[in-house]
Amino acid sequence: QVQLVESGGGLVQAGGSLRLSCAASGLTFSISSMGWYRQAPGKEREFVASISWLGGSTYYADSVKGRFTISRVNAGNTVYLQMNSLKPEDTAIYYCKGRSRNDNDYWGQGTQVTVSS
User: Cα separation of 26 and 106, whole Å?
Assistant: First the structure.
């Protein structure tokens, strides 16, 4: 089992920045990738960004490319999502997801991000 705990959400004005953190614990050696998803009210959960655990390859949704950066520092068990130039449409609950090498998915509890216009 892998446990994930997100932090760093909050309220910010349009154009501002936030950094989300996702701390993994438990069987972290089994992780193959970690990512961020978000769900706005009345909408389905959507992919935001992901990072591979070994090679560090990153992937982004088109809607956040150039504004958001996913990272993992010094091969630690925490993944960050730096969000710049935030827009009201970025308002959502942001969830961290970890995927194991045998394709089990683990989710955090989510953190609210609200961007005011």
Answer: 11
Whether 56 contacts 76, CB under 8 Å: no
User: What is the 3-class SS of 24-92, one letter each residue?
Assistant: EEECHHHEEEEEEEEECCCCCCEEEEEEECCCCCEEECCCCCCCEEEEECCCCCEEEEEECCCCHHHCE
DSSP letter for 16, please: -
Q: What is the pLDDT of residues 74-85, one digit of tens each?
A: 778 999 999 999
Give residue 28's pLDDT band: very low, low, confident or very high (50, 70, 90). Answer: confident
Contacts of residues 26-29 at CB distance under 8 Å and 24 or more positions apart, as own/partner, are 26/1, 26/2, 27/1, 27/2, 27/100, 28/2, 28/77
Specify the pLDDT at position 81: 98
State phi, psi for 101 to the nearest 5 degrees: -65, -20
